[in-house]
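Fold this sequence, please.
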Amino acid sequence: MTQDEFLAAALRNPANQAITDELYRLGLPDAWLVAGCLVQTVWNVLTSRPLDHGISDHVAGMIVRPNRTANFSPANYATKAARWKALWPEITVLAAE
């Protein structure tokens, strides 16, 4: 499966499409849709199951988690998380430490 085929299959799920549309609309420079909602949707497409079969990621709530990459900074994460919490009070922000 090519990258384009994977993306096309993953975006057949209306929830995935809505989330990616909203991330694009918000113009967030480093926002990602990841996890089982993508892989499970593609698996569902390949096996002719309902697009949302076996997916619980979408109902996990609005949770912000630190992304501990090589350039991760707890201070920068805290600053960003405070800004996000001010914009979207309903989110849950997990601490960096």
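Helices lie at 3-10, 14-26, 36-46, 74-87. The mean pLDDT is 89.
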